[in-house]
Fold this sequence. Notes:
alpha/beta
Amino acid sequence: xxxxxxxxxxxxxxxxxxxxxxxxxxxxxxxxxxxxxxxxxxxxxxxxxxxxxxxxxxxxxxxxxxxxxxxxxxxxxxxxxxxxxxxxxxxxxxxxxxxxxxxxxxxxxxxxxxxxxxxxxxxxxxxxxxxxxxxxxxxxxxxxxxxxxxxxxxxxxxxxxxxxxxxxxxxxxxxxxxxxxxxxxxxxxxxxxxxxxxxxxxxxxxxxxxxxxxxxxxxxxxxxxxxxxxxxxxxxxxx
Length: 239
């Protein structure tokens, strides 16, 4: 009995290692913003054509806030670009969310230029969700956006126009927790003014942003986020 269990455990480790080894490895990325600041991030490139997902973190965080979720995206065969916004992480500089909106376009342009990128989408958390909604609305090539705990006005980032008109022809996933009052109110308000296809997902408790990737039910949430991407982020067929 012990020998059989040991054999099964070894086989499990081999299988797990094989899956892990098959996932793309991260490549550090540095690009120059319009004002000369060097923006830094990590790129995980699939070897086959794929949708590239730009990840925008919360205030007070950095690209490592997505570390638990990135393997789910990679297993879903998405390429991933996780970045440190200005004023945070290795990018450094001074926090400036107005300039950060321009930086989002800089990152999206870089992502579109990479080999095997068949399309792009954005996923953001908290203020990064607002930046993602605005950034996707401003880029006609952006296929859609996932907004985890957005606000109606976080640090001067106001995505209402993007929700109402800029994303009228592209899908949105708006996520909040009932106990996270500001974001819960925001996604309900956005649901009232959205003119395109959107999904409103509300959770119990008061988790905010990338906190959805930890604690009870985290695996189910992360799997569902990828399932939403699979269903709604569709690369148009070439004419």
